[in-house]
């Protein structure tokens, strides 16, 4: 890679976009050339994110596919769910490679998408060509891709924690319990009553029990890890809101198919993720502060009364969004996966 590749940030006002900009400003092969906002006044990026003052001199502008194609080879979409459907076809038509941080291209079945998101999928050709952007599992498919479906934060944590056991057929594929907690930034920057300080501070609560939208995404990706052995993976996923800014922590319970030995399972995880620089298989019990502000996912496990308990955590805004998006960009550019992320 030589010179600087132009990239666009489509939807620059949110928390994930801010993290993405901060990472890309450190990238030696990339230059942010376009930022868009749906706000009428088209503010400067450093007005949206004061922490970027004197770090980026760029004003937001309305979305214009032609303008982006003239100045950028890649576009990161940090848009609300369903909004990317109107943007992706226009960019792909102009040969702009897309990394979409929304859920619009993650679910391969358009009917499943419609059922869980309440919206018909309007870009079936794009959906068919999209590559799920979890490098640890799909590293070989990402470099040539024109459209990356960046995974979500809960999904990344859960899938990475379970993938070795599913791939090696060591656990039952149903009855897997994922008890996950997220910081408030996982809900995005738009004001919502439940995330108002007096509502969520000094409180701990579950939400969307039994119908959280990440459930079919976790099922789908883990099922692909079974190598066509037949039985689909089905998880019971329960998310919780924790009154902290950032972080995801998942405690996962799975039933082994045969007697499980803790040491052997940890060695399996280390071998499975040997090529993955951002997966840390640890012996201690991890905490969200260990991975905060980094692109690492920390995983360990314990065998308790014959059951396997996996514990995993990551920063929802970085490894769960912007950081993995840059990992995908690095693979697409053919540069080291860790570029700008260490």
Let me know the largest β-sheet: 7 strands, mixed
Query: What structural class should be given to the helix and strand makeup?
Result: alpha/beta
Helix and strand sequence: EHEHHEHEHHEHEHEHEHEEHEHEEH
User: Uncertain segments of ≥5 residues (pLDDT<50)?
Assistant: none
The rounded Rg comes to 20 Å
CATH architecture group name of the largest domain: 2-Layer Sandwich
Task: Give the strand line-up of the largest sheet.
Answer: 8-9-7-10-13-12-11
Give me the number of helical elements: 13
Overall outline: globular
Descriptive overview:
The protein has 342 residues and is of the alpha/beta class. It has two domains: 5-129, NAD(P)-binding Rossmann-like Domain (Rossmann fold, 3-Layer(aba) Sandwich), CATH 3.40.50; 154-316, 2-Layer Sandwich (Dihydrodipicolinate Reductase, domain 2). Helix content is 31%, strand content 20%. It contains 13 helices and 13 strands. It has helices spanning 15-24, 45-48, 65-71, 88-93, 110-117, 124-129, 135-138, 153-167, 197-200, 214-224, 262-272, 288-291, 318-333, and strands at 5-10, 30-36, 74-77, 97-100, 131-132, 147-149, 176-182, 205-206, 235-241, 248-254, 279-281, 297-304, 307-314. The protein has a seven-stranded mixed beta sheet with strand order 8-9-7-10-13-12-11. It has a six-stranded parallel beta sheet with strand order 2-1-3-4-6-5. Helix 1 packs across helix 13 and helix 8 packs parallel to helix 10 (214-224). The radius of gyration is 20 Å and the shape is globular. It starts with a strand and ends in a 9-residue tail after the last helix. The model has no long low-confidence stretch (mean pLDDT 94).
């Amino acid at each position: 890679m030589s010179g600087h590749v132009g990239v666009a940030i489509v939807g620059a006002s949110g928390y994930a976009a801010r993290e993405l900009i901060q990472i890309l400003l450190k990238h030696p092969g990339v230059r942010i050339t376009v930022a868009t906002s749906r706000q009428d006044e088209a503010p400067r990026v450093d007005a949206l994110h004061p922490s970027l003052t004197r770090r980026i001199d760029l004003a937001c502008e309305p979305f214009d596919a032609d303008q982006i194609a003239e100045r950028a080879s890649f576009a990161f979409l940090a848009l609300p769910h369903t909004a990317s459907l109107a943007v992706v076809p226009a960019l792909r038509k102009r040969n702009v490679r897309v990394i979409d941080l929304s859920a619009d291209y993650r679910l391969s079945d358009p009917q499943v998408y419609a059922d869980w998101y309440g919206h018909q999928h309007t870009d079936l050709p794009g959906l068919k060509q999209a590559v799920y952007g979890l490098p640890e599992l799909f590293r070989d498919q990402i470099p040539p891709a024109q459209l990356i479906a960046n995974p979500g934060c809960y999904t990344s944590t859960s899938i990475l924690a379970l993938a070795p056991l599913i791939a090696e057929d060591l656990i039952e594929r149903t009855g897997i319990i994922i008890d996950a907690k997220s910081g408030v930034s996982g809900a995005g920057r738009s004001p919502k009553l439940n995330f108002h300080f007096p509502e969520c501070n000094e409180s701990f609560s579950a939400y969307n029990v039994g119908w959280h939208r990440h459930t079919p995404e976790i099922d789908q990706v883990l099922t692909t890890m079974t190598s066509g052995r037949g039985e689909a993976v089905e998880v019971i996923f329960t998310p919780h809101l924790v009154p902290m800014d950032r972080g995801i922590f998942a405690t996962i319970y799975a039933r082994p198919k045969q007697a499980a030995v803790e040491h052997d399972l940890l060695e399996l995880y280390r071998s499975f993720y040997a090529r993955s620089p951002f997966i840390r298989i640890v012996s201690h019990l991890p905490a969200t502060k260990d991975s905060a502000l980094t692109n690492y996912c920390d995983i360990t496990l314990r065998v308790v009364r014959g059951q396997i308990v996996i514990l995993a955590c990551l920063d929802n805004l970085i490894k769960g969004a912007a950081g993995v998006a840059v990992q995908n960009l690095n693979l697409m550019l053919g540069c080291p996966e860790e570029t700008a992320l260490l």
